Amino acid sequence: MATANVKIIESKLDIFQAPQSYALAHAVESSFSALRGTLAWQFSLIYGDVEELRQRRVARGNCAVLEHNARFVYYLVTKSSIYDATTYEDVQAALICMREHMRSHEITKVAMPRICCGNDGLDWKQVKRLMQQTFAHGEYPIEILVCEHEDMSKELAAPKCQITEAKGNLFSAPENFALVHSVSADFAMCAGINLQFRCKFGQMDELKRQHRHTGNVAVLEQGGRFIYNLVTKERSHEKCTYTALYYALLAMREHMRENNVTKLAIPRLGCGIDRLDWLRVRSLLELVFADDKVDIIAFFYTPPPMVKASMNIVCPTCHHMKTIQIPRSVSASRQSLYREKTPF
Fold first, then answer.
1. Treating both helix axes as pointing N-terminal to C-terminal, what angle do 39-47 and 242-258 enclose, rounded to 10 degrees?
2. Residue 58 belongs to domain with CATH number
3. Which of 53, 130, 141, 161 has CB atoms 3.0–4.6 Å from 294's, for a disulfide?
C-alpha cells in the first residue's frame, strides 16, 4: 500500500476550463440552493439536475454525484443551509465519501476550488492538509487540481452586457449585428431556423472543414458580418444540453473578443425542439458575458392563434343547413375543398 500517494497542484485555471479528463468537485448545502453568482449557482446553471439531487436528501458530510458525458461531478455537502457555518469535520467527511466513489470508479484526477475557503471562511492550509490526509493512502496516485473561480454576484448585479427581447424575425436584425444559432456537428440543417440559415448563407463545405464538435463554434463571415454556429450536439436527432451550450458560448466569446464583436442577434437558443428553458439560457448568457459590453437582441416568434370561421352548407340528402368550421387563414378559393370533404 502506497503512502503519501496524492499530488495537489494549485493553478490559476478556471475550474470550468479544467481538462475533460478531470472530474469536478465543489461544496454545496444539503438543499442544493445557492445565491446567484456563487460557484454553486454556476454549477447548477451549467450542469443542472438540481431537482434530482434534492430528491436524494443528502445530509451534510456526504457527497452526491452526477455524471455528464462520462465526467463525474461531485457535490460535497458541507452544511445544511446557505446560512450555516461549515466545519472542517464536515468537509473531511464529504471528501471521504468522494474518495470512496473515486476508488470504486477508478477516478484518479479531480479538479476543485479551495473548498469552503471563500464565503465559508475556512483556512486553506488546514483544508489542504485534510485533502492530503484523506487521499494519502490510496491504491493508486491521485491528482487534485486546485482551480481558481470567481464569484460573479457583483458582476451579475450590474452586468455589462444588455439583453433585449424582441418579437420578430432574427434576419431583420441590423447588419452590424452578428447572427447566432445552435447546430449539430453534422450540420444537418434540415428544419426550422437552421434550414433558413442554410438557405440564406450556405457554405456547408466550409462549416464541415472546420471540424467543430460539441461545445465549440463554427464561424462564417459574409459581407463583414460574422455568422456563429454554436455546436451543441453531435447529431441532429440528439438533444442540446445546457452544458454544451455554455461551452459553445465560451468559444464564441473568445472569437468575439479577438475580433471586437459587440453586437449579437440570437433566437431563444435551444428553446425550440431541444426544449431548453429560456430563463435558464438567458442566465447562461448573462454569466458568459457579464464582463463584456455586448448588446444582445433575442428574437422570438409567436405564431398567430388559429381563428376559425364558420360556413353554412346545405346537406344534399336531408336539405338541412349544416355549419362547418374553417380556419381563418384558408383562402376563399380553397374553401370549396372543405365543402367536398364535408361528410354529408
1. 110
2. 3.40.220.10
3. 161
